[in-house]
Known about the structure:
Layout lengths: L8 E5 L5 H10 L3 E6 L12 H5 L9 E4 L6 H10 L3 E4 L7 H5 L7 E3 L16 E8 L3 H5 L5 H4 L2 H17 L4 E7 L3 E8 L2 E9 L6 E6 L2 E4 L12 H9 L6 H15 L1
Helix pairs in contact: 1-8, 7-9
Amino acid sequence: METLKNKNNWCLVGLGFISDRHRKAIEHVGDKVLLTCDNDETKNADFLSFDIMCESEEFKAVDYVAICTPNYLHVPMIKKCLEKGKKVLCEKPLGLNEEEISELPNDGSVFCVLQLRYKLPKEKISPDKVGMRMNFHRDQSYWDGWKGDTSKSGGLLFNLGVHYFDYLIKVLGENYDIQWSVCEKDYATGVIEFGRTIVGFELSINKDKPIQRTFEFDGKEVNLSNHENLSYEDLHKFVYEDFKKGKGVCPADALKAIKLVALLRR
């Protein structure tokens, strides 16, 4: 990797599972986690209160903020950080509806983590048929926590599916027509037409089925990951490399997949 100059200080907000990937990526680009924040006392964060932290003297020394909190908190926290002059990298989904995401600037001060873009086909493809088959394993703690609360996570399509619909849009374009869709707590299926391309999709959370993250383009299978969690593909480092260069997925771009999953969930 080309050495990335200008070492910067980060604040890591939310110390759940995904925060370790962010911490490692921050170290990968040569930066430092200066402050941490989490309302769980057992996480031993520097601050328990996000609002108090933002008003602190310590926060003034922070250049960038990585937000890894529950989905419904993303946009309010982004806005607060922007008010304080910080640049923000936020975990997916950027928000839970078009209205709140549309209020965010597209001037390079906010980017969203959608790391599957680093696995996009290198050449443009125009298949007639696409099959999208995703199955995830999650234990009971997933359902007992905020991720199991649709009002906080957005449910299956927002919390887990947004990666794959963003991938579809990048491959097939932004013009689509939803033929039909069904969305339940742990299962979603439907058919979408992207021009002449017919996409049939299935997403599920089912521990009795193998983990699967595959697309079939005219019968040719593309396997995105066999890992328990997509973060184990270690793609966050590429997100941070681009962030340091002033590149990334801006709110208007991240919104495209949000609009699609919102329509599918209706």
